[in-house]
């Protein structure tokens, strides 16, 4: 029996036999040849926030008075040294865009049939800096957005926001100038989303400044639009 037959009969792809998938966190082989970033024990170490069941939570608190949200959620808690941090690093720095797809679908599963999203028109990813997009080859927020959108059966609007190059060298600026520079690098993009409910998506929410800029741009640019925010993680 050839290796190809064995692989077919056991249901494993040939690729999975030759290149077993290793868990990103513990480096053990993931049984079954599944293309998944974590083994089951490491997956169960992720800590879901359950924010989709809490109309007021730490995400909505961050934007209180800054941005009116229909729903604000994050999927997992992000701590230094946590499994969640390993996943987010791999997604951003180690060329693992499929993590965005997978966690985006998980997030989508929690948001499916959520009453606050009954009128959702589409998902808007936070754009990344063009130079970073060139280096990385993908925008992680766009991969998350497509995972969420595939489960919620709504379109992704990847052009709804654009990001331009920074002006000058950031290193010569003080903190306030830097914040202003980042704010000015976001622009409303193509498409008319007047009156639509948009779900703004990013990987991690920390201070919330970027989501705040982007959310306000969308609401200012599209008359009577409404907004929700969903991220994969929230820094504790
Ligand atoms: Zn593991």
From TrEMBL:
Residues 143-232 form the Phosphoribosyltransferase domain. CDD domains: PRTases_typeI (cd06223). SUPFAM superfamilies: PRTase-like. Belongs to the ComF/GntX family. This is ComF family protein. It comes from Neolewinella lacunae.
């Amino acid at each position: 029996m050839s290796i190809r037959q064995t692989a077919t009969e056991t249901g494993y792809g040939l690729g999975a036999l030759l290149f077993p998938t290793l868990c990103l966190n513990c480096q053990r082989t993931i049984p079954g040849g599944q293309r998944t970033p974590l083994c089951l024990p490491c997956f169960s170490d992720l800590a879901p926030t359950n924010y989709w069941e809490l109309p007021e939570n730490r995400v909505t608190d961050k934007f209180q008075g800054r941005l009116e949200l229909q729903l604000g959620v994050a999927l997992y808690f992000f701590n230094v040294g946590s499994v969640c941090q390993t996943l987010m690093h791999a997604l951003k720095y180690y060329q693992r865009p499929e993590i965005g797809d997978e966690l985006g679908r998980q997030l989508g599963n929690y948001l499916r049939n959520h009453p606050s999203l009954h009128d959702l028109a589409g998902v808007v990813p936070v754009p990344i800096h063009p130079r970073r997009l060139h280096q990385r080859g993908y925008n992680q927020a766009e991969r998350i957005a497509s995972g969420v959108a595939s489960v919620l059966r709504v379109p992704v609007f990847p052009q709804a926001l654009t990001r331009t190059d920074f002006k000058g060298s950031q290193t010569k600026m003080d903190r306030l100038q830097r914040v202003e520079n980042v704010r000015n690098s976001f622009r409303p993009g193509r498409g008319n989303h007047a009156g639509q409910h948009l779900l703004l998506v990013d990987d991690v929410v920390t201070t919330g400044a970027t989501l705040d800029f982007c959310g306000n741009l969308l609401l200012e640019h599209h008359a009577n639009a409404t907004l929700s925010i969903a991220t994969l993680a929230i820094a504790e």
